[in-house]
Design goal:
Blueprint lengths: L13 H85 L4 H6 L3 H6 L4 E8 L3 E8 L3 H12 L2 H8 L4 E2 L5 H11 L3 E9 L2 E10 L8 H86 L7 H32 L7 E3 L1 H11 L1 H6 L3 E5 L7 E3 L1 H18 L5 E9 L4 E8 L6 H4 L12 H5 L6 H11 L4 E6 L3 E9 L17
Parallel strand pairs: 7-9
Antiparallel strand pairs: 1-2, 1-5, 3-4, 4-5, 6-8, 9-10, 10-12, 11-12
């Protein structure tokens, strides 16, 4: 208790001190052990705490990265959705404008819905040609005064037009600050894309889309979509213009064809009238000539017989020439009459089926003296199974005689004349050829060789007289048999006259007679 003192007893405190020291040592050891253990735990705790802090920081960074990635994915998803909507819009528009060739209808399809689905509030389409410059075709939301200013200014900017021609796209994303500011000033859209409409002829116009200041900036994807839309528009406009040109050309051609047809019909009628009058004139003149020729020939024959007295030899000789020339004139008149009658349809072909071989053999016998005189060979080549052909024997005989005689006339001594025949079973006709190895015919003469009185200008015709009616008569006879005749020739190598004859005339259209035809 306080204030109480105890008496001190003398004794040895050494053991006590020793025990105390031992105790202190033990206590110190225990405390030291305790504190040392606590320190180690504290270090472990601090290390764990640091690890937790680091893990938390890492989780925070990962969370930030996840949020950032999520935002980017959302943005990418929004952009992808816009692209899908835009592509779907372009696909629908492409199908729509590809089905019309009306230029005005194409521009009417570019409406506000198209612009909105592409992500823009303003749209402008201008067409272009060198004469009128830029012309407004579609305008959605842009001040007409500004458009007029832009139309005039851009139409005079050769550098701008050259850039459009090169396919350059102007946009608020990639254009220079100067160009961007200029377009924004002209059309009052901060976010914009301006793309050319290119056709095969060059710049066909331009497409402008834009948004005002509060809208999102344009992207590379927007540029791509507008570029596709511009290509579709340009292609549709080009197709429309080509169709318009083709339509106008067709209308012009039809008008010219109708006009020309009318002119040709009138000319054909005139030709038919002239031909009719010619035939009538020839017929009348021929009949008028026949009477005096008959008298001349008759009196010449009487004088030559000596019934009116003796005739000197010199007079007989001249009377003989009168008789010969009279015969030639009679033949000429008969040929003219036959041609005019056939052309006018007054001669009816008395056609019956015949084997043509006997007629050709008879003609060969008839012309043998002329062939032998010039030492010319004549060969006849007919198919083994040659069908019967319907023809007028008298008239067809004249065709072959005229053609072979003509070949003899223009074939040098030692030459060859060949009569060939081929069958065209599909057309049910025979194709005959009278070929020679003569002097040939110039190209310019081939077109007129069947004209009446036409004679080729060559040495043989200068020496040998002729009327120029033989081939014309042959042509008329062949065409009266519903056939066609033409000629091919090489100068210096020979000439081939070709003509066709149908096996039968049944069901033949009379209009086929006397028609021009070339192989």
């Amino acid at each position: 208790m306080p204030g109480i003192s105890y008496p001190m007893h003398p004794f040895d405190i050494t053991p006590l001190l020793l025990g105390l020291n031992v105790t202190l040592i033990i206590i110190s050891s225990v405390l030291a052990y305790f504190f040392i253990g606590k320190s180690e735990d504290l270090k472990d705790l601090q290390s764990s705490f640091k690890k937790i802090i680091n893990s938390f920081n890492e989780l925070d960074e990962q969370a930030k990265l996840i949020v950032k990635t999520d935002l980017e994915l959302n943005k990418a998803q929004e952009e992808l959705d816009r692209r899908l909507i835009g592509l779907s819009t372009l696909q629908t528009l492409s199908r729509t404008i590809s089905r019309t060739l009306d230029e005005q209808e194409i521009f009417r399809k570019i409406d506000k819905t198209i612009a909105t689905e592409l992500g823009f509030t303003h749209l402008l389409v201008l067409s272009y040609d060198e004469t009128n410059g830029f012309t407004i075709r579609t305008n959605l939301g842009i001040d007409p005064v500004k458009i007029e200013q832009a139309r005039t200014e851009l139409g005079l900017d050769l550098q701008f037009l050259s850039a459009l021609k090169d396919g350059m796209i102007f946009s608020s994303l990639n254009s220079s600050q100067k160009t961007k500011s200029r377009i924004i000033q002209l059309l009052e859209n901060e976010h914009f894309i301006l793309s050319p409409l290119l056709t095969q002829r060059g710049v066909g116009g331009l497409l402008f889309v834009g948004n005002r200041y509060s809208a999102p900036a344009v992207t590379a994807g927007d540029e791509e979509l507008i570029s596709i839309l511009a290509s579709q528009l340009a292609q549709a406009l080009e197709n429309s213009q080509l169709f318009e040109q083709a339509y106008h050309a067709s209308q012009t051609l039809e008008s010219k064809v109708a006009e020309r047809t009318k002119e040709l019909s009138m000319a054909l009628k005139d030709v038919e009238d002239i031909s009719k009058k010619k035939s009538e004139f020839i017929s009348a003149v021929s009949h008028e000539l026949r009477t005096p020729l008959t008298s001349i020939k008759g009196y010449a024959s009487i004088l030559m017989t000596g019934k009116v007295g003796d005739i000197p030899d010199a007079v007989k000789e001249r009377l003989g020439k009168i008789n010969t020339h009279s015969d030639n004139l009679v033949k000429l008149i008969n040929d003219l009459l036959d041609i005019s009658r056939i052309e006018s349809g007054r001669v009816e072909m008395k056609t019956t089926p015949h084997n043509i071989r006997p007629m050709l053999d008879t003609i060969a016998d008839l012309l043998t003296p002329q062939l032998n005189n010039k030492e010319i060979s004549l060969k006849i080549n007919l198919p083994v199974e040659m069908p019967a052909i319907e023809y007028d024997t008298t008239q067809m005989d004249r065709v072959f005689i005229n053609l072979v005689s003509n070949a003899i006339k223009f074939t040098p001594a030692g030459g060859l004349i060949t009569i060939n025949a081929q069958l065209n079973m599909m057309r049910e006709e025979a194709i005959f050829e009278v070929a020679d190895t003569g002097i040939g015919i110039n190209k310019e003469d081939l077109q007129r060789i069947f004209d009446e009185f036409y004679r080729v200008d060559n040495e043989i015709n200068l020496k040998v007289k002729g009327t120029g009616l033989g081939l014309a008569l042959a042509k008329n006879i062949v065409e009266a048999h519903y056939g066609h005749i033409w000629v091919t020739s090489t100068v210096g190598q020979g000439t081939i006259f070709h003509f066709t004859l149908p096996f039968q005339h049944k069901n033949k259209d009379p209009k086929q007679k006397n028609t021009r035809w070339h192989p």
